[in-house]
Amino acid sequence: MAGGLFGYAIGYFAFDGIEPWLHTTQYWDSYQAAVSWFERWGFWAVFIAGFSPIPYKVFTIAAGALAMALLSFTLASLIGRGARFFLVAGLMAWGGARMEAVLRRTIDRLGWATVALVVVGAIVYHWSGRS
Question: Of 64, 66, 30, which Cα lies nearest the Cα of 49?
């Protein structure tokens, strides 16, 4: 959580200084995607980035640069990151060394599957006329 708040502070206080550097890195496209997600989803964008293999640090900087409400950012980060880490820890406690081996091979796929389910859920919700 401290790293997420540090990323938020970088975005909030120093984005103008790091933006030229960001353009020269592999993270610029991810940053642009994060901005687009924030405009549409806000809290949920941070939650999904915290839970999934999406580069969370990019979302923390984007949240600060876009001046997302700090309380919303903190809650989304705590819930998303906490859920991911407690899920992994629980699975490892339950399955031991065998589960650890399975998770090492599949954790990214599980994360992307979660993102896909959320996207499908959002589309269904949108098409049902509730948005």
Answer: 30
pLDDT in tens, 5-18: 999 999 999 999 98
DSSP state letter for 103: H
What is the predicted pLDDT for the residue at 73?
93
Q: Positive or negative CA dihedral for 80, 81, 84, 86?
A: negative
**What is the rounded CA–CA span in Å between residue 74 and residue 84?**
15
104's CB contacts (< 8 A; 6+ apart) are none
The amino acid at residue 97 is A
Instruction: Determine the length of the chain.
Output: 131
Distance in angstroms (rounded) separating the CA atoms of residues 118 and 64: 24
Instruction: Tell me, rounded to whole angstroms, the distance of Cα 103 from its chain centroid.
Output: 19
Query: What tens digit of pLDDT does each residue of 78-97 get?
Result: 998 888 888 888 888 888 88
